Amino acid sequence: MEKLFRGVLRHRVVVLCAFLALTLVNLACIPRVVIDANMSDYLPTSAKSSQDLTLMKGVYGNDIPDARVYVTGISQPEAERFADELKDEDAVVSVSWLGSQVNLDEPMEVQDQDTIKDWYDGDGYLFQAVLSSKADQAEVDHIRAIAQGLDGAQGVYIDGSAVSDAANLASINTDMTKIMAIAVVVVFLIVMLNTTSYLHPVVMLLTIGIAIVLNMGTNIFRGTISSITQLVASVLQLAVSMDYSIVLLTNFGRCRENTDDQFEAMVEAMTKSFPVILSSAAVTFFGFLSLAAMQFLIGADMGIALAKGIVCSFFSITLLMPCVLYMMRNLVERTTHRPFIKSFKRMSLVCHRFAVPALVIALVCTVPALLASSSVSFTYGSSSNISATSQVKLDGDVIDKAFGESQTWAIMVPEGRWSDENALVDDLKGLPTTKSVLSYGTVASSALPSELGDESEVKQLLSGGFSRIVLTSKIPDESKGAFDLVDTVRRICSEHYGDDYHLVGNAVSYYDIRSVTTSDNLTVKLASMLAIGAVLLVMFKSVSIPVLLIAAIEVSIWINEAVPYFTGETINFVAFLVIDAVQLGAAVDYAIIYTEEYLARRRRMGKREASVTAIEHTAQPIMTSSSILILACLGIYLSVSSPMISQVGMLIARGALISVVEIFFVLPLLFEVFDWVVRHTSYKIGFLVEDKGPKDADQAPEAAR
User: Fold this and answer.
1) How far apart are CA 421 and CA 439, in angstroms?
2) Strands, E, within 356-489: which ranges?
3) For the chain, does the N or the C end have fewer beta carbons within 10 angstroms?
4) Residue 334 shares a structural domain with residue 457
5) Pair 131, 253 in one domain
6) Do the beta carbons of residue 201 and residue 188 sit within 8 Å?
7) In the listed set 131, 159, 187, which residue is the last one of a domain according to the structure?
8) Which CATH number is 294's domain given?
C-alpha cells in the first residue's frame, strides 16, 4: 500500500485532473435524475395493492382522483366553464364535479340533496381531478390561476395526494440548499476548532463535496430516485465521511511530528490511515446496504444511494484529499493556528469515574427501551410529510371543513356479472363511512347496453372486460378507521368475487406499506447487525469484540427509538427505519476508532490504563465527527419544511449523542470487564499479561493520570 500511495502522491496532478473530469461529467448528470415523491411507487411488486394499481392503470389509462379543487363565489355557469377548462389541461386526465353527478337542467331543489351537498355547499363548488404523473407545482399553480380568473371567484383551495407530491418535489431544492448550507457551516467551524490550520476544513469540504457530486451524478444510471433519498443522502454522506478525513488529518499531524519531509509524512499517514478508513467505510457501507433487505423498495433506493456515497467518499479521501493537501502544503503552513482544544485527559478521567453508573443506567433502560421502540406510532403517506403551515395543508383544512374528510377508492371487477356488482354496490352503500358509490349501474343501468350510455362516462367505468366502481368514504387519509375500512371492503369484495377483484386507493397502498414495513423493521435490524458483525469479525479477528461493540450501540439505538413512544410522537416510518442503519453505521465508526487505539495500548499496558488513555487519544476525532453529525442534524431539524426530514434530523442527532456517551462511558468498561473473554476469543490479540493482586489495580489509575 505504501508503494501505491507513493505513486499516487507523485502523480498528484493526474489524480486531481481525473477527479475534476469525473466531477464535471457527474455535475451535468444531476439535473437529469428523475425524482419520485410517491411512496406507493415503492411498494413491492408482490403487494396486492401494487398489482391492482398497475392493472387498473393499464386497463383504464388513469388513476383514481388525486386532486380536489374548491372554488367559492362562482355561479353554476362559471363552474361548468371551469370544469371544461380543467379537462382541456394536458396534466389533467379527468374531472368530476356536480354536473357529473346530477342533471343541471333540472332545478337543484328536486335533485338528491345528499349528492348536492357532496359537491356544492352553498358557497362554492368542489371539483375532483385525476392529474397525470408528470403534474408538478407549476401545473398546480396554473390550475389555481385559472380558478382565480373566474368571474366572482373569491377563494381557491387545492389539495390531494398529487398536489402533496408536487409540493414535496418543489420544496426539495429549497430544503437541500438549507441542509447543505447548515452542514458546510457546521463542518467548517468544528473542524477549524479541532485541527491546526484554517485551510483544513476547506480541503475536507472540497474533497467530500466532489464525492457528493460523484454520488448524485451516478444516480442517473438508476433512472429514478425517491425524494427522500435526494434530500438525506448528501448530508448523511457528508456527516459520515468526516470520520475518514479526520483520521487522515490526525495521522498526518502525528507523522509530521517525526519528520520535516511532508511528502514522506503524507505517504506514512496515507498508509496508516488506509486500514482504519477501509474498515470504517466497509462497516458503514454494509450498514447502509442492509436497507436493501427491505421488501419496501424505498429501502433499496436509499441503501444503494447511501452505500454508493460511501464508496465515492472512500476513494476521494484516500486518493484525492492527500494530493490536494500536499499541493496546498505551503498555504496550509501559512494558515496554521494553535489547537483550540489541547487535551482530553480530564475528560477521560471523568468518563472512567462515571463508567459504572453509566453501565447500570444502560442495563436498566435496555428492556423498556426495546419494548417501547417496537410500539411507536407511524405515518406512511405523503400527506404526513407536508408542513402544517404549507399551502396544501391549509387548503386541505378548508376543503375538509366544507365537505368533510374523504377518500376515493376504485374497485375493478369483471364486467357482465351485474347481479354480483349490484349486490356489492348495495353493501358498499350500507357502510356508515360511505359518502357516495359510482358504478355503471348507478349512472345508467346494468340492463342498458353500454353503447347507449354517455361515452365519456362509460369509458371511465367499463373497459377491457372490467367494470369499475368508485367508492368515496368519509374518513381521514391515514387513520385506524381507514385501515379498518380496507379490511372491510376487501372482505365484502371477496364475498361477491372471491379473489377476482382489484382495489386501489391511497389508504389501501398505505395499508400494504404498513404490513410490509412491520416485518422490514426486524429485517433491517438483523441484516445491519449481521453485515456489520461480519466485517468486525474479519477486521479484529475476534468473536467477542463485534458482540461488545454492537451490543453497546444497539442499546443506544433502542433508547433513541424509544423516545417518540414516551413523548407520544408519531414518526414517519421511513425516518424510523433509516435510523437503524445510519446510527449503527456512524456509531460503529466511532467504536472502531476507540477499539483500534485500545487494542494497541492494551498490548503494552494494563486494561484499566489502556481504557482510560484510549479515551484521551481518540476523543478528538470522535468528538469532532460526532459534533458535526449532531449539530448538522439539529440544524436540519430546526430549518427544513419537510416534517419527515426534520424527524430524521432529530433522530440522527439524538442517536449520535447517545452513541457517543455509550462509546466513552460504557464501552471502555465493557472491555475491562470482559478482558479475559476478549483475550481468549481473539486470534493473536497479544494482550499484556497483568500481574494479579492489588498492585496493578492501585497503579493503573496513577499511570493514567
Assistant:
1) 9
2) 378-379, 407-414, 434-438, 462-463, 466-473
3) C
4) no
5) no
6) yes
7) 159
8) 1.20.1640.10
pLDDT in tens, 658-675: 999 999 999 999 999 999
Q: Is the dihedral of CA 253, 254, 259, 262 positive or negative?
A: negative
Task: Identify whether residues 178 and 123 lie together within a single domain.
Answer: no
Q: Please report, for the domain that includes residue 409, its CATH number.
A: 3.30.70.920
Distances 116 to 13, 66, 99, 403 between C-alpha atoms, Å: 74, 21, 10, 11
266 and 404 both lie in a single domain: no
Residue-wise over 389-404: b if at least 16 C-beta within 10 A, else e?
A: ebbbeebbebbbebbe
Q: Give one DSSP letter per residue of 591-643, joined into a string.
A: HHHHHHHHHHHHTTS-HHHHHHHHHHHHHHHHHHHHHHHHHHHHHHHHH-S-H
Query: How many residues make up the chain in this entry?
Result: 705
pLDDT tens-place string over residues 440-479: 877 665 444 444 345 555 667 888 888 888 888 888 877 7
Contacts of 96 (CB under 8 A, 6+ apart): 65, 127, 128, 129
Domain limits at 206? Answer: 171-340
Instruction: Give the angle 586-590-595 at the CA atoms, nearest 5°.
Output: 140
Question: What are the residues facing 71 on neighbouring strands?
Answer: 125, 156
Give φ, ψ of 136 to 5 degrees.
-125, -175
- Give domain status of residue 216, yes or no: yes
What's the one-letter identity of residue 576?
F
**pLDDT, tens digit (0-9, with 9 covering 90-100), for 537-565:** 988 999 999 999 988 988 998 999 899 99
**String of DSSP letters for 319-354:** IIHHHHHHHTHHHHHHTB---S----HHHHHHHHHT
Contacts of 99 (CB under 8 A, 6+ apart): 79, 80, 83
Closest CA to 705 of 613, 607, 594: 613
Q: Which of 378, 377, 376, 396 is nearest to 386 (CA)?
A: 396
What is the percentage of the chain residues whose pLDDT exceeds 90? 29
- Nearest one of 5, 577, 631 to 287, comparing CA atoms: 577
306 shares a domain with 182: yes
The per-residue pLDDT for range 349-367, each reduced to its tens digit, is 999 899 999 999 999 999 9
Q: With beta carbons less than 8 A apart as the criterion, state whether 177 and 622 touch.
A: no
Question: Are residues 177 and 247 both part of a single domain?
Answer: yes
Per-residue cell: 282 = 466497509
Nearest to 80 by CA among 100, 66, 110: 100
Compute the distance between CA of residue 606 and CA of residue 700 in angstroms, rounded to an integer: 7
296-to-33, 303, 390, 565, 577 alpha-carbon distances in Å: 21, 12, 28, 23, 11
Q: Give residue-wise pLDDT tens across range 315-348.
A: 999 999 999 999 998 888 888 877 666 678 888 8
pLDDT of residue 692: 57
Rounded CA separation 295/293 (Å): 7
Q: Is residue 502 part of a domain?
A: yes
Greatest Cα pair distance in the chain: 103
Number of domains present in the structure of the chain: 3
> What Rg value do the Cα atoms of the chain yield, rounded?
30
